[in-house]
Amino acid sequence: MSNIYDKAREGFVAGEIVWKATGGSTIKAALVRGYTFSVSHKFMSEVASAGGTVVATETLNSLTNTNGVLDAADAVFEAVPEGNAIPHIIIYQSSAVTGGSDVPAAQQRLIAFLDRGSGLPVLPNGQDISVVWSPGADRIARF
């Protein structure tokens, strides 16, 4: 199941989340294990309280949002520590809408939860993990 969080939909409509290549907020992807998904979660702090462990994060670049389809350049998570399989990727806004530095996890807005796709789950071995977003119609996520 891959899904857009309900609170993210509200955030996009209210202008609290901006997905664009320049002048927007900082959007990141996180490799996560142990998380119990809830469509009603709003902030990254809720990932930890739902049992999740963030293993690695990466800032997404070349963001596009054509016809309600969210996409970005493929991501490379560098030197991901060895450990148990990582079954989830969470997309989130790590900064304020106007860009700038990261805000606390209690203010970082969840956008999308991904748990299917080529290579998921991935077993980290200390090397880089490349994430190639789907070339299909839904890309990272679709509203």
Give a written overview of the molecule.
The mean pLDDT is 90. 10% of the residues lie in helices and 29% in strands. It contains 2 helices and 10 strands, in the order E-H-E-H-E-E-E-E-E-E-E-E. It has one domain (3-142). It has a 5-stranded antiparallel beta sheet. Strands 4-5-10 form a 3-stranded antiparallel beta sheet, with no helix packed on it. The chain has helices at residues 6-14, 45-49, and strands at 3-4, 27-33, 53-59, 64-66, 69-71, 75-77, 88-93, 109-114, 129-131, 141-142. The chain is mainly beta and 143 residues long. A hairpin with a 2-residue loop joins strand 4 and strand 5 (69-71).
Distance between the termini: 15 Å
**Number of separate helices:** 2
Radius of gyration: 14 Å
Mean pLDDT rating: 90
Q: How would you characterize the largest beta sheet?
A: 5 strands, antiparallel
Blueprint of the fold:
Blueprint: E1 3-4, H1 6-14, E2 27-33, H2 45-49, E3 53-59, E4 64-66, E5 69-71, E6 75-77, E7 88-93, E8 109-114, E9 129-131, E10 141-142
Antiparallel strand pairs: 1-8, 2-3, 2-7, 4-5, 5-10, 6-9, 7-8
Quick summary of this structure?
With 143 residues, the chain is mainly beta. Helix content is 10%, strand content 29%. It has one domain (3-142).
What structural keywords apply?
143 residues; globular
